[in-house]
Amino acid sequence: MIRERILVIGASGQIGVELTLALRKIYGNNNVVASDLREENELLKGTGPYVSLDVMNKEMLHVQVIRQSITQIYLLAAILSATGEKNPNLAWNLNMQGLLNVLDIAREEKIYKVYWPSSIAVFGPTSPKKNCPQQTIIEPITVYGISKYAGEFWCNYYHQRFGVDVRSIRYPGLISYKSAPGGGTTDYSVEIFHDALEEKKYTCFLQENTYLPMMYMPDAIRGTIELMEAPASKITVRHSYNLSGMSFSPKELAGEIKKHIPEFHIDYKPDYRQAIADSWPESIDDSVARRDWGWKNEFDLPGMTADMLENLGVAS
Length: 316
Hints:
Layout: E1 6-9, H1 14-27, E2 32-36, E3 50-52, H2 58-67, E4 72-75, H3 81-86, H4 88-109, E5 113-115, E6 118-119, H5 143-162, E7 166-167, E8 169-171, E9 173-175, H6 188-198, E10 201-204, E11 212-216, H7 217-229, E12 241-242, E13 246-248, H8 250-260, E14 265-268, H9 273-278, H10 287-293, H11 301-312
Parallel strand pairs: 1-2, 1-4, 2-3, 4-5, 5-7, 6-8, 8-12, 9-11, 10-14
Antiparallel strand pairs: 11-13
């Protein structure tokens, strides 16, 4: 039995915080090393080891992997869609070179498993809008989507060529009450809850009927760990798995919130993120993940909304 030693890179980000805490519950606090360039997130403090780490510094990363006897790496550090459009070169360099550094070290040190997230941003205007399948036309229009699609091919390449057990999920928009979103096109779905509670109103940067695939963070964390714990024989996709939880529009989400906060009001001022959202599918077909490793989401829109508001301070 391998004694797991897990390194989470980007542990202070939206996914990283909750994934690190979940992994520590499973593998033990001291066996999950959190790392980030940023200051350690408050929710992580005192729960286990933390190191300051720049994924772009391959030598420093390599030293930590050896020093900590790492057997699994979760690479979450990335520049997301909306932020990436403001600085495309930086987004490309960080998203690509960080992944290549991790894959190279995994090959050299024979790291047991690697996890790297992709995104629905790989899809573009020519991809099917409804129930977008696992294999389809993929022509992304953002540097984030381009970097994620290229990254999927690198993951598959390192698996086929060097036997690296790298696994990936194309995350939809993620909704969480524990940690803040990181500059993505679906961030409205988190911001709206905070503004609803504090201001009783929200101005959305997407049009009211913009449908996008979404997922509640507890489902995303559970799905990620289930993928990583599945036997290698079950993994048929080495690029990245489609994963879905629900699909809704800002108008529908606002309607659910109004059931709990009747005075809540929303208005709409679409910005540059609208064009990004318009290029993505409205819903995702994740039947391959369901078939291969038994994926099944637990939260729908009403369940997610009630849980978010309860945890942020409004018991319905």
